[in-house]
UniProtKB/TrEMBL annotation:
Protein name as annotated: ABC-2 type transport system ATP-binding protein
Organism: Roseibium suaedae
Cross-referenced SUPFAM superfamilies: P-loop containing nucleoside triphosphate hydrolases
GO molecular function: ATP binding; ATP hydrolysis activity
Domain ABC transporter span(s) in chain numbering: 4-233
UniProt record similarity statement: Belongs to the ABC transporter superfamily.
Amino acid sequence: MSVFSVEDVSYSYGSRKALDHVSIELGAGRFCALLGPNGAGKSTLFNLLTRLFVTSEGRIRIAGHDIAREPRQALARLGVVFQQPTLDLDMSVERNLAYFAGLQGLSGKQARMRSAAALERLGMAERAREKVRALNGGHRRRMEIARALIHEPAVLLLDEPTVGLDAPSRAAITDHVHDLADSGLLVFWATHLVDEIREEDEVVVLNKGRVLAQETAGQLAGSGSLTEAFVRLTASGEAPPPSVLTGAEAGR
Ligand SMILES: Nc1ncnc2c1ncn2[C@@H]1O[C@H](COP(=O)(O)OP(=O)(O)OP(=O)(O)O)[C@@H](O)[C@H]1O
């Protein structure tokens, strides 16, 4: 059963079409990478999924709730990690999480239990009392993912969550998030780094506002590599997009 569906969604900035009849359907317990070069429309799609933007063209459903008709119910099933960190650096990890839990309407006891469970899932339990300022970039990111799980969403959206992190931190985060998908969550992960994607992961390739493919990474790669398949799909007679790199190639 689909927990996430985008049906025939379009969005324009004035005369510039950023999304053009986009349709994506995903079920629970999957890790799906939204793969696209710069300017593909990934952030625009995320802004529509989180209702920062609205469109009258097409329909978005989260856990069966239409985001235009039942926004509160739809957003209640969504956990989001934005590209820009939004943590209070001078509060402890647990106080940051408790604050967010309060915003979600959870009682103190519930908030403590959920925070502890979420930090445990991200391997961050022993850092609960540390100030965020003292954490490295990878741990801060893991904490933001823990925070996004507190209200027990069905869908976790992450917008290029490993940008700027070193290789071990990126690997730890991608491992943790794959574990979350294995435990039943639908993970929708925007990236332009193909080495974050595993063979069995679902991949949606977005380019110039259009979905070019939705299949597993293994199917997409065929007998070659995922990078080659991605470049072939998105190049369409132009130079390969410069942003299609693995983390190593990107110097991370
Ligand atoms: N506020 C805006 N006004 C006009 N055009 C915009 C605006 N924001 C984005 N665009 C255009 O819409 C298209 C999609 O942009 P978007 O930021 O969604 O892509 P993206 O895949 O997230 O790119 P990146 O990986 O660089 O963040 C691009 O052509 C971009 O130039």
